[in-house]
Amino acid sequence: MNFRKGQGREDPEINLIPFIDVLLVILIFLMVTTTYSRFTELQITLPTADAEKAQDKPNQIEIGIDAQGRYKINNQPISFLDTNTLANDLKQAAGALEAAKGGAQLDPVVIINADRAATHQSVIDVLEAARIAGLAKVTFAAQGSGKSK
Questions:
Q1: CA dihedral of 24, 27, 28, 32, whole degrees rounded to 10
Q2: Theoretical Cys-Cys bridge with 130: which of 59, 94, 135, 141, CB 3.0 to 4.6 Å?
Q3: Kind of pairing, strands 137-140 and 60-65?
Q4: Confidence of residue 144 (pLDDT cuts 50, 70, 90)
Q5: At 127, which helix (H) or strand (E)?
Q6: Residue 70 burial (CB < 10 Å; 0-12/13-18/19+)?
Q7: How far is CA 146 from CA 44, 112, 149, in A?
Q8: pLDDT of 32-69, one tens digit each?
Q9: pLDDT higher for 21 or 96?
Q10: Measured between alpha carbons, how far is 31 from 43 in angstroms, rounded to an integer?
């Protein structure tokens, strides 16, 4: 007996929003509880070279900074007033280097040898002076610890 003669039958609907919520919770749970295994590092023995050090040190300007804030350019003491005077001293050192190389246009490397007790500001002053002098290649010297790994 069908008492609803004029009405059609409604199809059942599956509500997808709670289903998606449950799947996201499961996905988050799996992501949090998953353990990732680490791969062991490769044991590599690096090759050694027995070449002699180059005696000639071309195209480099060495700047030394001691713990008291005194500066030396290529082992010549200079008086530091400000970064502009230091930049002029660097330009003179680059000019002397170019003259020693026969007037060839060089792009020297500025090597900063700073004492570990030297102030950070003194190293920044050298970097700023090298920028003002137009010397783009700057590097830092470091002493090896003598420990082998």
A1: 180
A2: 135
A3: unpaired
A4: low
A5: helix 120-133
A6: middle
A7: 20, 21, 10
A8: 887 665 555 445 455 565 555 555 566 888 888 888 88
A9: 21
A10: 31
Across the beta sheet with 109-114, what order do the strands follow? 76-78, 71-73, 60-65, 109-114, 137-140
User: Which two structure tokens, joined as six digits, stand for 22?
Assistant: 């449950």
Q: Determine how β-strand 76-78 pairs with β-strand 71-73.
A: antiparallel
Band (pLDDT 50/70/90 cuts) for residue 3 is low
Rounded Cα distance, 142 and 147, in Å:
14
Distance CA 89, CA 130 (A): 10
